[in-house]
UniProtKB/TrEMBL annotation:
Alphabetized SUPFAM superfamilies for the sequence: Six-hairpin glycosidases
Pfam families: GDE_C, GDE_N
Organism field: Acidiplasma aeolicum
Domain Glycogen debranching enzyme C-terminal: 265-587
Gene3D superfamilies associated with the record: 1.50.10.10
Record-linked NCBIfam families: gde_arch
Protein name stated in the entry: Glycogen debranching protein
GO MF assignments: 4-alpha-glucanotransferase activity; amylo-alpha-1,6-glucosidase activity
GO biological process: glycogen catabolic process
Classification via InterPro entries: 6-hairpin_glycosidase_sf, 6hp_glycosidase-like_sf, AGL/Gdb1, GDE_C, Glycogen_debranch_arc, Glycogen_debranch_N
Residue ranges annotated for the Glycogen debranching enzyme bacterial and archaeal type N-terminal domain, each copy included: 6-211
Amino acid sequence: MDYNYEWIIANKNASYSSSSASFANLRTYHGIFVKNINENYDRMVMLSKFFEEFEFDSDRINLDSNYYPGTVFPDGRKYLSDLNDDPYPQFVYSSQNFKIKKSIIMHPLKDVLIIKYEMDPEPEIARFYPLLSFRNSNDIIRKGDRIFVWQKNGKFVHFSSVQNNLWIGADGNFITDNLWYYNFQYPVEIERGSHYEEDLYLPGHFELRYPGKNIEITVHSDASYAGESFDDTLKEYIKSRYKIRSNRINIKNMYEKANIFLLKNNIIAGYYWFGPWGRDTFISLPGLALIPGRYELARDILFTYMRQMKNGIIPKTMAGEYDAADVSLWFIYAVYKYYEYTKDVNTIRHFMPAIKEIIDGYIRGNDYYFMENNLIKLKMGKLTWMDAEYNNIIFTPRSGMPVEINALWYNALKTYEFLCNEVSIGYDDSYKNIYKYIEKNFENLYMHDGKIYDVLPDDFKLRPNFIFAFSLPFPVLNNFNKYKNQVDKYLITPYGLRTLSPEDPDYIPVYTGDRLHRDRAYHNGIIWPWLAGPYITAAVRSGNSASDLLDYFSSLYNMRKIPELFDDDGTPKGCILQAWSYGELIRSYFEDLGGN
């Protein structure tokens, strides 16, 4: 049993519950009840832990485990005999004297969590201990940092602090403790060089005597909570899960897990620390929403971002960040894919003015980019998907004319022409002159003297970004095999593509250490699984075997939990689940690998 396996369940508000298999929290992001508190997708760990004691024939059993300095205490993980977290977390604890099944479910639309215990035999006493923190998910607290107020009201106890509210409901008595537990340690945060030790507050505990063989505990912060049972909530949760049609169980399982990213009208980029990001959303949209036929969701997502457009720029995040040179171009890509799958001409008409405004904005220029000699030139180094920065150090500076930005620029101009024809509106010939110039000169500009330029005029580090010139719906180049050998020799791995050739002196194979070291490695060699998607598309278009590609990436396609990153040895890193990792693997499976 891997006691550090991380499980998670989330709802369409981006609230979640997550911890390790042993329920020893490994990160500041872990918590039994973690609530999304605003439209910027800041999350608060309300209920950090909720541990249990049971008495069977006066034998006291504690199921909890925690990391403390130099030790694990208590060691309740020794009772854990089984764990299944699909489609929701279920844990089995057993010994010769008892068996307990613990299940956790979350309402898909309300911030309501229900924990169910099924016990054999009936315990004499069951005690439940809520440890509170009421803090941001990337922070910690110490004793006295919060003042908690609580009040018993019928079955529920209401807890409040820092203008936040939480209710926990259980049968039995609530006994006041008023204690702080000290020095919980989070091993992943130690590795990441972050704050890793905190104290948690125990206001009191629930005590149930001879509770029967089944107990349900309800945790919520939702004023609309109407007393749903575990079984009722489970039905709503299962009903909310989108399915995908496939003859392969691994693809069905992959999409089942990918449901975690789909919000009411957006796509969350990854767990634990991301909210929705425009770039990630538009790249993920075909695999996560269009291929499964969730057309209404896809349309709502596109309108959500279009309504936030300012001066021809689609936002990078829902927090109102606009400093990106590619997000608006990826928006046009996503609109095209929406039309490709739906043929919804009426909706496309609503997007056409926005697409034209975006294109005119690139031509006109702004604080971030402008058009020079028909190509898009960036004024600063942190405007592409390779945007890691720490303490004003930009680790992949790409000011100039990045190759994928201009492949996307060409794709945007061609997409607009295509959609103009579909909806019967005029297309400005000046746009055609731009893309004709790019068609004629792109290869000579970016591939000459035996080098592939990542950024013009003088950055020829071998990175995977040039692949988009071959993989977008309107590719500016079509001879990928001419350059594929360099990708296969230096960049490709069974887990995705390296972000820099190992031959480069700046190559870093491991994503570890504090923020400085992790951000330095982020796009300088670390493997990104989402890049397998454009590689597969480009390779298949150039006549390479779909079955061989599927075999090569079988490690990814057989995963349920696909992370943000991998070290060079295949160790998962970064977010434990990343939307575009799933989205691009699903898209390329169905569009390029003959998936069914």
